[in-house]
Design goal:
11% helix, mainly beta, six-stranded antiparallel sheet
Length: 357
């Protein structure tokens, strides 16, 4: 079963109870005189569970997306989108996704059709290859995230696994997190709100590609997972359906910001909200190891000062929501403080970083 209500949108890591915090609390290390920035040391010790998708989602380093990509050749004819998805609405109610046959592996090459290349200009991909999330004996569903300045684009790839015959009348419906808006785009696709009809999907290395553009329309809730639920129904010689849950780790919504130490110090004093977190024990061995974690979380390193690291990111949404992170390594622990203009995002960023340590 899916671990969340189909219309919920909540963060997945909750702060421990007051009793748990008291049991986990340990005396904070004495403040070092050589603290070059004069930043507060974290004095809250929390043992955080690893995020369930932290290991599964290995974000790329901050290199630009490969340009262009192959153009998807599809029939220009389209069929009117269905007015209702009642026939397979049960797929969105939480039943497990159909697993693709172990002997069949869908292609992993990311395809960006010509019609979507302007939308994808300058995007960074969350993975160098597609991630398969669902399948049937006849079709497979894969995805990759494209990180744009103020939104996340989930590129859905629908593959036909049939030997020669195409899938036809392919209906796709997405169920977005409640705090987000979604806009669907794609070639040879008839769009109707959060649903789409694709005329056909040819067999071989030529998937249909549908872009789900996600942006925040409401504040980030305090508990639960961010996920995109996708239901696919298709006809042809063989008819079938797929449903899948695509986890959306919060790091997908952070964007690195280049800064220097002086700018960091000026911003740090002005930001009103902060969240402190102690990760102990931790596998982080040295500052460079922690910098690699920050890069996976889409934070840009500003400076390493002995055992301290400062870095900057921002939330991918319209408006200014900076994320400043100060971390101190020592005693087998990492003390993390994140400051922002928004308390919920400061906590979300600290937890996202902590889940990777």
């Amino acid at each position: 079963e899916f671990p969340f209500s189909r219309r919920s949108c909540q963060r997945s890591v909750q702060s421990p109870s007051a009793d748990a915090q008291q049991q986990a609390a340990a005396p904070a290390a004495a403040r070092q005189d050589d603290d070059l920035l004069g930043l507060e040391s974290s004095n809250v010790q929390q043992q955080q569970p690893r995020h369930p998708t932290a290991d599964a989602m290995d974000l790329m380093d901050q290199s630009p997306a490969p340009p262009g990509g192959a153009t998807l050749a599809m029939s220009s004819a389209s069929t009117a989108a269905p007015s209702s998805f009642d026939a397979f609405d049960d797929l969105l109610s939480g039943s497990p996704a159909a697993a693709a046959p172990a002997s069949v592996q869908a292609p992993t090459t990311i395809r960006v059709p010509e019609e979507l290349q302007s939308t994808m200009q300058g995007a960074m991909f969350s993975s160098p290859t597609l991630v398969q999330v669902g399948g049937s004996p006849h079709a497979a569903l894969s995805w990759v995230g494209a990180l744009l300045p103020n939104e996340l684009v989930v590129l859905l790839h629908i593959h036909s696994l049939m030997p020669t015959e195409p899938l036809v009348a392919v209906d796709v419906q997405v169920d977005k997190p409640a705090c987000m808006s979604v806009k669907l785009e794609g070639p040879a696709v008839k769009i109707s709100g959060s649903s789409a009809r694709i005329t056909q999907v040819r067999p071989g290395d030529d998937p249909a590609v549908l872009a789900a553009r996600l942006s925040f329309a409401a504040p980030l809730p305090k508990t639960g997972n961010l996920s995109l639920v996708v239901a696919v129904k298709y006809d042809g010689i063989q008819a079938g359906r797929i449903n899948a849950e695509i986890p959306l780790p919060l790091a997908l919504f952070f964007r690195p910001v280049q800064s220097n130490t002086q700018q960091f110090g000026g911003m740090w004093q002005k930001l009103p909200c902060n969240h402190k977190l102690r990760i102990a024990p931790t596998a982080v061995s040295d500052p460079e190891h922690f910098v690699a974690i920050l890069q996976r979380a889409n934070f840009a390193k500003v400076e390493i000062i002995k055992s301290e690291i400062i870095s900057v990111s921002r939330v991918a949404r319209p408006g200014d929501c900076p994320l400043l992170c100060h971390a101190r390594l020592g005693g087998g622990a990492v003390d993390v403080t994140v400051k922002s203009t928004d308390e919920s995002w400061a906590q979300a960023a600290a937890v996202a970083i902590g889940s990777m340590c």
